[in-house]
C-alpha cells in the first residue's frame, strides 16, 4: 500500500514539475521580487538602518528567503485551483490512484520549486556580499527550517486552492503572509519599533524563524528561538494539514 502511494505521488510530482519547466516564468516571478527587495534594502535603505552588524546583507538574507517562499506558495494555490476547475481530480479518482497522491504531488512540487528559488536568491546574495561562516550541520538546520516553513505555508495554499471560487482568490491569501516579514526582525531590530508594533513583531512566527536562521548562518547560539521556530512551523503545518484534508474530502466526496 505504501509503495503504491509513493509511486502515485512521484508520478503526479513529475506531472506538476513538467508544468513548471514549461512555464519558467513562475520561478522567475517568484525570485525577481525578493531579489529586488534585497537590492533595495542593501543599496537604498541599508545606509540609514542600524542593526549593529557590519554586513547588512547577512542581516537581510533570512527575511528575503521567507518572502520568496511566501510568494512562491501562491502558485500552489493557483495550480490546485486550476486542477479542481478542470475536473482532473475527478479523472484521477476514476483511476486506481491513491487519493492522497493528488494533494501530495502539489505539496512536493511546492517544496522543490521553492527550493530552487531559494538557491537562486542565495547566489544573488553572494554576488552582492552575503557571506556565512556556518558549518555543514548549521546549513542543514537552515535547510530543514526553510523546508518546514515551506511545508506549513503550502498546506495553507492547499486550503485556498481547494476553497477559492476564483483564480484571484486562490492566490490572494499569500499577500498578508508576504507582508509579515516587514513587521518582524527581518529588516530592522524589533527594539526600534513602537510599543504595540514591537509586541506583535516579537510574538509572530516570522521573527522566531528569522532570528533562528540568522543565528545559524552566523555561527551564533539560536537559544530558545529555534524551539519557537520549530513549534510555529509544526503547529501551523498540523492545523493546516488537517483543515486541508477535511476540505479535500468534502470537495471530492
From TrEMBL:
Kindly list the biological process annotations in GO that this record carries.
response to antibiotic
Q: Which InterPro entries match?
A: ABC2_TM (IPR013525), ABC2_TM_bact-type (IPR047817), ABC_2_transport (IPR000412), Nod_factor_ABC_transporter (IPR051784)
Residue stretches spanning the membrane: 24-45, 57-81, 102-130, 136-160, 172-190, 226-248
Sorted UniProt keywords: Antibiotic resistance, Cell membrane, Membrane, Transmembrane, Transmembrane helix, Transport
What GO molecular-function term can you cite, just one?
ABC-type transporter activity
Top-level division of the source organism's lineage: Bacteria
The topology of this chain with respect to the membrane is: Multi-pass membrane protein
Where's the ABC transmembrane type-2 domain? Answer: 25-251
Q: What is this protein called?
A: Transport permease protein
